[in-house]
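pasting for the record
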Amino acid sequence: MRVTWKTDKGKRKSMNEDAVLVDEDAGLYLLADGMSGPRAGRVASRLAVRKAHAFLKERSAHTPDAGILPLLTRALEHAHGVVQKASLKRGALSGMGTTLIVLCIRGETAYLSHVGDSRAYLIRQGTLSRITTDHTTDYGIEQDVMLRELFFYHKARVLSQALGPSKKVVCDSHSIDLLPGDRILLCSDGLTDMLSDGAIEEMLKVHGDDIEKTSDLLVEAANRMGGKDNISLVLFGR
Protein backbone atom coordinates (compact mmCIF):
# COMPACT_ATOMS: atom_id res chain seq x y z
CA MET A 1 0.00 0.00 0.00
CA ARG A 2 1.49 3.35 -1.06
CA VAL A 3 0.42 6.44 0.85
CA THR A 4 0.86 10.19 0.69
CA TRP A 5 -0.64 12.95 2.79
CA LYS A 6 -1.04 16.71 2.60
CA THR A 7 -2.30 19.44 4.89
CA ASP A 8 -2.65 23.07 3.84
CA LYS A 9 -3.84 26.19 5.66
CA GLY A 10 -6.01 27.27 2.74
CA LYS A 11 -6.60 30.85 1.62
CA ARG A 12 -8.85 32.24 4.37
CA LYS A 13 -7.75 30.75 7.71
CA SER A 14 -4.98 32.24 9.85
CA MET A 15 -4.04 28.86 11.32
CA ASN A 16 -4.25 25.21 10.32
CA GLU A 17 -6.74 23.49 12.63
CA ASP A 18 -6.49 20.14 10.84
CA ALA A 19 -4.20 17.35 12.00
CA VAL A 20 -2.92 14.28 10.17
CA LEU A 21 -0.99 11.36 11.67
CA VAL A 22 0.41 8.61 9.43
CA ASP A 23 1.99 5.47 10.94
CA GLU A 24 2.75 3.17 8.01
CA ASP A 25 4.53 0.58 10.16
CA ALA A 26 1.41 0.04 12.26
CA GLY A 27 -1.00 0.55 9.34
CA LEU A 28 -2.72 3.41 11.15
CA TYR A 29 -3.90 6.65 9.52
CA LEU A 30 -5.74 9.44 11.34
CA LEU A 31 -7.21 12.76 10.19
CA ALA A 32 -8.98 15.39 12.31
CA ASP A 33 -10.55 18.79 11.70
CA GLY A 34 -10.65 20.97 14.82
CA MET A 35 -13.13 23.73 15.56
CA SER A 36 -14.22 26.36 18.13
CA GLY A 37 -11.63 28.97 17.24
CA PRO A 38 -8.16 28.70 15.67
CA ARG A 39 -6.18 27.91 18.80
CA ALA A 40 -8.75 25.66 20.44
CA GLY A 41 -9.45 23.81 17.19
CA ARG A 42 -5.75 23.26 16.61
CA VAL A 43 -5.32 21.86 20.12
CA ALA A 44 -8.38 19.60 19.80
CA SER A 45 -7.39 18.04 16.48
CA ARG A 46 -3.81 17.37 17.51
CA LEU A 47 -4.82 15.98 20.88
CA ALA A 48 -7.37 13.66 19.27
CA VAL A 49 -5.00 12.15 16.69
CA ARG A 50 -2.19 11.70 19.22
CA LYS A 51 -4.33 10.07 21.89
CA ALA A 52 -6.26 7.82 19.49
CA HIS A 53 -3.01 6.75 17.83
CA ALA A 54 -1.32 5.97 21.15
CA PHE A 55 -4.38 3.95 22.25
CA LEU A 56 -4.32 1.92 19.03
CA LYS A 57 -0.54 1.53 18.86
CA GLU A 58 -0.55 -0.14 22.25
CA ARG A 59 -3.34 -2.59 21.41
CA SER A 60 -3.74 -3.17 17.66
CA ALA A 61 -0.86 -5.63 17.18
CA HIS A 62 -2.43 -7.97 19.75
CA THR A 63 -5.99 -7.61 18.45
CA PRO A 64 -7.42 -10.22 16.04
CA ASP A 65 -9.07 -9.06 12.84
CA ALA A 66 -12.55 -9.53 14.30
CA GLY A 67 -11.72 -7.08 17.06
CA ILE A 68 -10.32 -4.23 14.97
CA LEU A 69 -13.57 -2.32 14.41
CA PRO A 70 -14.52 -2.39 18.12
CA LEU A 71 -10.97 -1.30 18.92
CA LEU A 72 -11.24 1.69 16.56
CA THR A 73 -14.50 2.69 18.23
CA ARG A 74 -12.86 2.49 21.65
CA ALA A 75 -9.98 4.65 20.40
CA LEU A 76 -12.37 7.37 19.23
CA GLU A 77 -14.27 7.22 22.52
CA HIS A 78 -10.97 7.48 24.40
CA ALA A 79 -9.92 10.53 22.35
CA HIS A 80 -13.35 12.07 22.94
CA GLY A 81 -12.89 11.78 26.70
CA VAL A 82 -9.42 13.30 26.57
CA VAL A 83 -10.55 16.29 24.46
CA GLN A 84 -13.57 16.79 26.70
CA LYS A 85 -11.50 16.81 29.89
CA ALA A 86 -8.94 19.22 28.41
CA SER A 87 -11.76 21.54 27.35
CA LEU A 88 -13.17 21.63 30.89
CA LYS A 89 -9.81 22.26 32.55
CA ARG A 90 -8.71 25.29 30.54
CA GLY A 91 -11.03 28.23 29.98
CA ALA A 92 -9.37 29.24 26.72
CA LEU A 93 -10.18 25.80 25.31
CA SER A 94 -13.77 25.67 26.55
CA GLY A 95 -16.10 24.00 24.06
CA MET A 96 -13.34 22.89 21.72
CA GLY A 97 -14.07 19.96 19.46
CA THR A 98 -12.85 18.03 16.47
CA THR A 99 -13.86 15.49 13.89
CA LEU A 100 -11.78 12.33 13.71
CA ILE A 101 -11.46 9.60 11.14
CA VAL A 102 -9.25 6.58 11.82
CA LEU A 103 -8.21 3.96 9.27
CA CYS A 104 -6.41 0.69 9.95
CA ILE A 105 -5.03 -1.32 7.04
CA ARG A 106 -4.49 -4.98 7.85
CA GLY A 107 -3.59 -7.32 4.99
CA GLU A 108 -6.20 -6.97 2.27
CA THR A 109 -8.79 -5.27 4.48
CA ALA A 110 -9.35 -1.64 5.42
CA TYR A 111 -11.06 -0.92 8.75
CA LEU A 112 -12.48 2.55 9.34
CA SER A 113 -14.28 4.47 12.09
CA HIS A 114 -15.24 8.14 12.24
CA VAL A 115 -17.10 10.92 14.03
CA GLY A 116 -17.98 14.20 12.30
CA ASP A 117 -17.86 15.21 8.66
CA SER A 118 -14.33 14.36 7.62
CA ARG A 119 -14.79 11.78 4.88
CA ALA A 120 -13.44 8.55 3.43
CA TYR A 121 -13.84 7.55 -0.22
CA LEU A 122 -13.09 4.36 -2.13
CA ILE A 123 -11.81 4.68 -5.69
CA ARG A 124 -12.28 1.42 -7.59
CA GLN A 125 -11.84 1.07 -11.35
CA GLY A 126 -11.93 4.85 -11.72
CA THR A 127 -15.23 5.28 -9.84
CA LEU A 128 -15.39 7.29 -6.63
CA SER A 129 -17.79 6.13 -3.91
CA ARG A 130 -18.23 7.66 -0.49
CA ILE A 131 -17.67 5.28 2.42
CA THR A 132 -18.66 7.58 5.29
CA THR A 133 -21.81 9.53 6.02
CA ASP A 134 -21.43 13.05 7.45
CA HIS A 135 -22.67 13.53 10.98
CA THR A 136 -24.57 16.70 10.15
CA THR A 137 -28.08 18.09 10.30
CA ASP A 138 -29.70 20.67 8.02
CA TYR A 139 -30.52 24.17 9.26
CA GLY A 140 -34.24 23.45 8.79
CA ILE A 141 -34.68 21.90 12.25
CA GLU A 142 -36.49 23.59 15.12
CA GLN A 143 -34.44 26.30 16.79
CA ASP A 144 -34.88 24.95 20.35
CA VAL A 145 -33.63 21.54 19.23
CA MET A 146 -30.68 23.18 17.52
CA LEU A 147 -29.68 25.06 20.65
CA ARG A 148 -30.22 22.11 22.96
CA GLU A 149 -28.68 19.22 21.03
CA LEU A 150 -26.31 20.49 18.35
CA PHE A 151 -22.94 22.01 18.81
CA PHE A 152 -21.35 23.63 15.78
CA TYR A 153 -22.69 25.79 12.97
CA HIS A 154 -20.60 24.56 10.08
CA LYS A 155 -20.97 26.35 6.76
CA ALA A 156 -24.41 25.42 5.33
CA ARG A 157 -25.02 22.71 7.90
CA VAL A 158 -24.83 21.85 11.58
CA LEU A 159 -22.32 19.31 12.83
CA SER A 160 -24.41 17.00 15.01
CA GLN A 161 -21.59 15.33 16.88
CA ALA A 162 -17.86 15.82 17.42
CA LEU A 163 -15.19 14.71 19.82
CA GLY A 164 -15.23 16.98 22.85
CA PRO A 165 -18.58 18.78 23.07
CA SER A 166 -20.95 15.86 22.50
CA LYS A 167 -22.13 14.13 25.67
CA LYS A 168 -21.53 10.82 23.93
CA VAL A 169 -20.20 10.02 20.49
CA VAL A 170 -21.67 7.32 18.26
CA CYS A 171 -19.05 6.16 15.78
CA ASP A 172 -19.79 4.77 12.33
CA SER A 173 -17.53 1.85 11.37
CA HIS A 174 -16.83 0.06 8.08
CA SER A 175 -14.64 -2.73 6.77
CA ILE A 176 -13.69 -3.00 3.10
CA ASP A 177 -12.09 -5.93 1.29
CA LEU A 178 -9.50 -4.28 -0.93
CA LEU A 179 -8.87 -5.26 -4.55
CA PRO A 180 -5.79 -4.64 -6.70
CA GLY A 181 -5.83 -1.06 -7.96
CA ASP A 182 -8.10 0.26 -5.20
CA ARG A 183 -7.38 3.65 -3.70
CA ILE A 184 -8.71 5.21 -0.49
CA LEU A 185 -9.01 8.94 0.16
CA LEU A 186 -9.42 10.44 3.63
CA CYS A 187 -10.06 14.19 3.70
CA SER A 188 -11.32 17.14 5.72
CA ASP A 189 -14.24 19.26 4.55
CA GLY A 190 -11.80 21.91 3.36
CA LEU A 191 -11.51 19.70 0.30
CA THR A 192 -15.09 18.51 -0.08
CA ASP A 193 -16.68 21.94 0.49
CA MET A 194 -14.63 23.31 -2.39
CA LEU A 195 -14.84 20.35 -4.79
CA SER A 196 -17.78 18.14 -5.67
CA ASP A 197 -17.45 14.36 -5.61
CA GLY A 198 -17.53 14.45 -9.41
CA ALA A 199 -14.68 16.93 -9.57
CA ILE A 200 -12.62 14.86 -7.13
CA GLU A 201 -13.26 11.73 -9.20
CA GLU A 202 -12.08 13.44 -12.38
CA MET A 203 -8.90 14.71 -10.72
CA LEU A 204 -8.12 11.26 -9.38
CA LYS A 205 -8.23 9.98 -12.95
CA VAL A 206 -5.82 12.57 -14.37
CA HIS A 207 -2.59 11.20 -12.95
CA GLY A 208 -3.67 7.61 -12.38
CA ASP A 209 -1.34 5.82 -10.01
CA ASP A 210 0.79 8.90 -9.23
CA ILE A 211 -0.77 9.52 -5.83
CA GLU A 212 1.72 12.26 -4.90
CA LYS A 213 0.85 14.31 -7.98
CA THR A 214 -2.85 13.64 -7.50
CA SER A 215 -2.71 14.88 -3.89
CA ASP A 216 -0.99 18.09 -4.97
CA LEU A 217 -3.60 18.59 -7.68
CA LEU A 218 -6.50 18.18 -5.24
CA VAL A 219 -5.10 20.71 -2.76
CA GLU A 220 -4.30 23.19 -5.53
CA ALA A 221 -7.81 22.85 -6.96
CA ALA A 222 -9.46 23.41 -3.57
CA ASN A 223 -7.39 26.56 -3.11
CA ARG A 224 -8.25 27.79 -6.61
CA MET A 225 -11.94 27.37 -5.73
CA GLY A 226 -11.52 29.67 -2.74
CA GLY A 227 -9.62 27.69 -0.11
CA LYS A 228 -12.13 28.79 2.53
CA ASP A 229 -10.95 26.22 5.08
CA ASN A 230 -7.91 24.14 5.91
CA ILE A 231 -7.39 21.31 3.42
CA SER A 232 -6.08 17.93 4.51
CA LEU A 233 -6.01 14.51 2.88
CA VAL A 234 -4.47 11.08 3.04
CA LEU A 235 -4.39 9.11 -0.24
CA PHE A 236 -3.61 5.41 -0.55
CA GLY A 237 -2.89 3.41 -3.68
CA ARG A 238 -2.40 -0.33 -4.16
